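Homework help board

Subject: predicted structure for assignment chain

Our instructor gave us this sequence and asked us to write out the predicted structure in token form, then describe one feature. I got the tokens but I'm not sure how to describe them. Can anyone check?
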Amino acid sequence: MSSNFVMVKLVVGVLFLGLVFQLVVSTVDIDSLNIWPMPHSVSYGHQVLYMSRDFELRTEGSKYPDASGILKDGFSRLLYVIRASHVVDGNVSDSQQSLVLQGINVFISSADDELQYGIDESYKLSIASSGDPVYAHLETFSQLCQFNFHTRLIEVRQTPWDISDQPRFPYRGLLIDTSRHYLPLPIIKKVVDSMTYTKLVDVVKRQTILPEIALIKENLSFAICLCFASGYWDFWVSSLSLTEVELTFSSLQVNVLHWHIVDSQSFPLEIPSYPKLWNGAYSIPERYTMADAAEVVRQVISAFFCRLNGYMVPNLCFIDFLYSKVIPDLSSNNFSFSSYAQRRGINVLAEIDVPGHAQSWGTGYPTLWPSQDCQQPLDVSNEFTFQVIDGILSDLSKVFKFKYVHLGGDEVNTKKMFRTFLDLLKLWWSETLMQDPRTIAVAFVILLQKQGMNASQGYEYFVLRAQEIALSHGYECINWEETFRTFGDKLNRKTVVHNWLDVGVAAQVVAAGLRCIVSRQDKWYLDHLNTFWPEFYSYEPLTNITDPKQQELVIGGEVCMWGETVDGSDIEQTIWPRAAAAAERLWTPYEKLAKDPAQVIGRLTQFRCLLNQRGVAAAPLTGYGRGAPREPGSCYMQ
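My token output:
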């Protein structure tokens, strides 16, 4: 190993010997630092370091192999994101060689890279003189790297950096809707990629940096460390010799992609247990196989990366970004198949909305409708309805491994449930009773009394039974707020209530001891194009919740991209940058948030332009959601 390639455990790499800086550290104001979202605490200095064109990853000395490829995958994405905007063709002068970051060597000390919810997400990025261990979030680090048009190199400016960070809420979500408009798989993947740039919703990825796990082999007079653990990196700039830090390979920051898969308009997903359900899709091409769903949740990233001769590299058109000497053997079929969303630290939350919003179910199975004239909600009196729900959740549980499933439950017209029973009575007893509607009404009342339910109780029965089915498949349930407002005391105590409509519901939910996710439609609905980014930034999920224990029951929030007016042509610019404004609200400590959104317009503008440079079609900050630029001009003036 060369002298410029320092090995670290989980370690870190690299960098250079024989150089000691005098540190100048400044406290950073929220108004001036171009990092989004704003970390918990930040300080910096005035030095410049350069990334080597041959910046490389090694895993020499690891206790475990990178069996899933997640380490190489994350390293490849790091290089691609940093180098994608410009061709990096500069050279470092001989006098600057000591300032070059050569690469990192990662020591994998645990084989566990499973993505979980509800764990420590804190991280630390430090460029310090103490020699203490320092760790960093990949996205935060990438925002510190800038292309220098004079040297044609990637620079890390204003070192030393010292960043300590952790999210305010564990659940930070983005909803997409594939029923109102079909979203092709590449579009969903682009949305997933863009989520990783904002620490949004997360899910929500987890970063666990535990100082007591770190093993420091020697003290340093100067160190820069950027740590990788399941997608995050540590690197070391050392004026001394080998430094070792040992960490468990279990660090992810969790984001949540809430996939509202089906609704009244279409049922695009294959359900092997009930193969006629996707007859409710708009068309045959506008469908997802269960393998497609697995692709989003836990399968290939081959659209961008493949494993060639043991190295994780971008596909052929991107090889230059890695400056790799590996010559691909296209006949070897040596590709890496693994998660797409989960490799990016994102859990996928599946939603199957019942009993309302389900008209499309009956296209393939008409008996799920109460009658041809009354096609929703689903028929509560038909045992086949619950057999289908059980089959759907059984199939989903094989692919969607997130601990939660969303069962909807919103906007159910109980008057239609009344008609449901009435229509069934007409169906069952048409030959003998159709001559006298009054007899039908009497028979209906008798039937309800025998079942011990009125129409509203039929709604309650349906939701609670669907919850029981979900629990039997290992899921905890999320339901829209109507279920709480109608029969909140009957909901399973593990239920998470999703507040979208009424102002005071979140406070009522946590007062009742249940958990809550906040998505107020007048604040965080992205399809409301007249809701501007300052409103997304300013909305506070803990409004009117003052008790600390109750505040902990608000697990987070979610911005919702309902699909009535979006498809693959405009979804990105409708989501971004307004969703990023909410992401800072969910990530940054309350006391660090700007009291006036005007304070952050400079940083958000910078971040919007960074998204554009990374290929994300984020709209200008000025004007309505997804509005086009008003006139010629700089990205930084829109």
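Reply (TA_rk): Your tokens look well-formed. For the description, you could write something like this. Residues 255-272+333-637 form a domain with the TIM Barrel fold (CATH 3.20.20.80). That's the kind of observation they're looking for.
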